[in-house]
Every structure is written in structure tokens, then in C-alpha cells.
Task: inverse folding
């Protein structure tokens, strides 16, 4: 069965370290997304990609970067982790609909990141 | 401005009661999409339903039903005869041309935590 996986599921790191969270999907979806979930803020979009070599900033992109070298993977990198980046991170993917948009996003299981 | 409002932060019901979760959205687009997701205590986000703005028919799936009313910009979710397994946080989301940082991104409400007491 097609799926979307994230690793690691839990991560503890120190302030200032570089951290990369992995996201892998076997749906063959062109669109991939990264969100963070925080109490009181709900889910907020960090970065997204509509295909290989395409990346775009979301609502809360400062301090994060992504790269898309193939269809299946969209790793999220925290260049220099800060305590404010302690959160639960969700990856999602969807089929592309061109300009029509609105396609259903399917989410991975999440990664809980703690920055000490 | 908040585009998706879930005014009920937390709701508690006794098992077998019916419960309605409210969702009010705001958009200036004529083509948009509405979603509901469930987040059980285990933490994953589970897709429940997607509706487009041109389809106002109510939908029923087992004990779940959704009432979409464009006149009031609402997309409410009702669980009939609630069960303990329905305990979760439920998110309503909107996708329109003006969403977030790019066209047709998902804008989520802040969620409603439903507790079903046995």
C-alpha cells in the first residue's frame, strides 16, 4: 500500500545544531508539504513543493529549508535549531491538480522535535 | 484575519449522544474546498472529507454527517451516537486561491477537542 513516512519519529537536539527531518512518500504525488503544529496555533505551513527542483516558502519558513531532488522525498532542514522550533512536524503529500488546486493532502505520522 | 474559525475549543459528551462540531470559514473566492481531519490521541492526521464550493449537498458516512451551507459560510460536522473512539481533535480546513502563502494551500482552524465519556 502507498504511504507517507517520517523519520525520526522523535528527536531531541541542542540549540544551534543542524537537524534534518525526513519525509518519504510512495503515492507518487507531485505535491509535498511541511507543517508544524503548536498549541494555540494549529497547523502552519513551513515549505511546500510542486515537483522535483521546485520549493516554495510557506507561512513560517524562517530558519527552515527544503530541497526536492526526487518525487518521493522532501527533507526539512533546520539550519541552526532554536528552542522556538520545538514542535511536532508533519509532512503531507497530494496529487497535483494544476491550477485547479484543492486536492486532498495526506499526512505522515509526525515527528516530535525538542530543542534544548 | 482568521479564515477558518472553530469556536468550540473543547467539547465533552457522554457516549451515544450526538455532537456537532462547528466550522465557519471566510473566503472571497467562488471556487474553494473544505476539509475535515481527525487527530486521535495517537497523533496522526486522518482525512475525513473534502467538499468543493459547488456541491452543497449534505453528506453522510455511517455515523458521520456534514452540513455545508454557503449562505452562512459554515461546514459543520455531526457525529451521531458518539463512541469513545471518536475522542480526538477535529480540524476544519479551507483551500482557496488566496490561502496562506500560495494558491490553494490549506488553512486550518485551531481544532476542536472532542472527549466522549463512557
Result:
Amino acid at each position: 500500500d502507498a504511504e507517507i513516512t517520517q523519520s525520526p519519529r522523535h528527536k531531541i537536539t541542542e540549540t544551534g545544531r543542524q537537524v534534518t527531518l525526513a519525509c518519504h512518500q510512495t503515492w507518487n504525488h507531485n505535491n509535498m508539504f511541511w507543517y508544524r503544529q503548536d498549541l494555540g496555533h494549529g497547523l502552519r505551513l513551513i515549505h511546500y513543493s510542486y515537483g522535483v527542483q521546485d520549493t516554495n516558502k510557506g507561512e513560517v519558513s524562517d530558519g527552515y529549508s527544503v530541497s526536492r531532488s526526487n518525487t518521493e522525498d522532501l527533507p526539512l532542514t533546520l539550519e541552526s535549531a532554536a528552542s522556538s522550533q520545538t514542535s511536532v512536524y508533519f509532512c503531507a503529500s497530494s496529487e497535483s491538480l494544476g491550477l485547479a488546486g484543492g486536492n486532498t493532502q495526506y499526512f505522515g505520522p509526525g515527528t516530535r522535535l525538542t530543542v534544548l | 484575519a482568521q479564515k477558518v474559525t472553530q469556536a468550540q475549543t473543547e467539547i465533552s459528551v457522554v457516549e451515544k449522544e450526538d455532537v456537532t462540531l462547528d466550522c465557519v470559514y471566510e473566503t472571497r473566492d467562488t471556487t474553494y474546498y473544505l476539509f475535515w481531519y481527525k487527530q486521535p490521541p495517537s497523533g496522526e492526521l486522518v482525512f475525513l472529507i473534502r467538499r468543493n464550493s459547488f456541491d452543497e449537498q449534505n453528506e453522510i458516512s455511517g455515523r458521520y454527517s456534514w452540513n455545508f451551507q454557503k449562505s452562512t459560510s459554515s461546514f459543520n460536522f455531526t457525529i451521531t451516537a458518539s463512541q469513545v473512539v471518536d475522542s480526538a481533535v477535529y480540524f476544519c480546513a479551507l483551500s482557496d486561491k488566496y490561502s496562506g502563502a500560495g494558491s490553494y494551500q490549506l488553512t486550518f482552524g485551531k481544532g476542536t477537542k472532542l472527549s466522549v465519556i463512557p
Q: What stands out?
A: The radius of gyration of chain B is 14 Å. The interface with chain A takes residues 31-33, 35, 37, 43-47, 50, 52, 91, 95-97, 100-106, 108-111 of chain B (CB under 8 Å). The longest strand of chain B covers residues 88-95.
